[in-house]
Amino acid sequence: xxxxxxxxxxGSSSLKYSLxxxxxxxxxxxxxxxxxxxxxxxxxxxxxxxxADDDHAVADHEAALEAAVRAFxxxxxxxxxxxxVAVGHRVVHGGDRFAAPALVDDELIAAVTDLVPLAPxxxxxxxxxxxxxxxxxxxxxxxxxxxxxxxxxxxxxxxxYAVPSSWLDEYGIRRYGFHGTSxxxxxxxxxxxxxxxxxxxxxxxLHLGNGCSATAVRGGTSVDTSMGLxxxxxxxxxxxxxxxxxxxxxxxxxxxGRSAEETDRALNSESGLxxxxxxxxxxxVSRRRAAGDERAQLAFDVYSYRLKKYxxxxxxxxxxxxxxxxxxxxxQHSAEVRAAALHGLEGLGIHLDPVRNADPEDGFASAEDxxxxxxxxxxxxxxxxxxxxxxxxxxx
Length: 396
What we know:
It is built from 15 helices and 13 strands. By secondary structure, the chain is α/β, with parallel strands linked by helices. The strands form 2 sheets. Strands 5-4-3-2-1-6-8-7 form an 8-stranded mixed beta sheet, with helices on both faces. The protein has a 5-stranded mixed beta sheet with strand order 11-10-9-12-13, with helices on both faces. Strand 4 (41-47) and strand 5 (50-56) form a beta hairpin.
């Protein structure tokens, strides 16, 4: 018997939803409402009875979810005809309070509200999605699944910054990590591909999309991850800089009169691939690189070099690596990134097969005799959220 979960991911001006069978991972329908609050919003719904693709004004998240419910009725499946056991909500930041998914109640709402200073661009929108869904779907249990929860297993020496200890106590300054649902899901899928128990494996998981993060996974638990207090730290991303000298803020304030807010905005929205090449979409960077664009080539080189550094660092953290796992848009589809990031690491037992890397249909990009497997695993965060929501209900 199927157990469907309505998975909701509310952004500041968007609402993404999916009706997922928690057992099989199959999505009965998916949809996205974009540009909420603007004069003309866009709503696309993919259902078994057809697709909807509409441009009309959607005033707020409540109107967006109401539009989604109507789309289910028109294009299927009607929510009343499906055995929906829960609504699963993606919440970006759970701080150090949430190491696991949790049933939504007034206490959880208050706790996530207290964490808004750690994720001012994300948690308010996540909260709005939860509150709207609770009003429109009051008879269903609601479960919050946190991006940061998977990384709450980091040891103190991995999550602690070398700053005054009062900063942790008073302001929560520490490494939290993100993309946790993706890293958790992909780790489990990697174990299945290898035919081994996840508890026996050491993995380096590389989630490479517009946002990018690396995680060292030992026995199914995160022991280090590249993103920090915020998603800005770590790898080079579409518009985020990743690692840089923290003194840059002060230097720009002195020589350019830039405020902390201006620099922070530039590092999050105008840097990364976009800052280096003028394009944040990796496909466009690749096209420009192939056409001989030097800025695109440099962007590719910086991106790949940072990846290689993290692979080496996490190899040292783990001591032994069974597999390196690439996932998300760039990780899954760019053979050139996988090749560049792992080039020269043969001494660590990492041997790519050029043919398999170009078309890793079976999930393997490494040579048959490579001591360290290189895997390409599609992520499915919606399925992971649905599974975790069902697990919360089962534990009640």
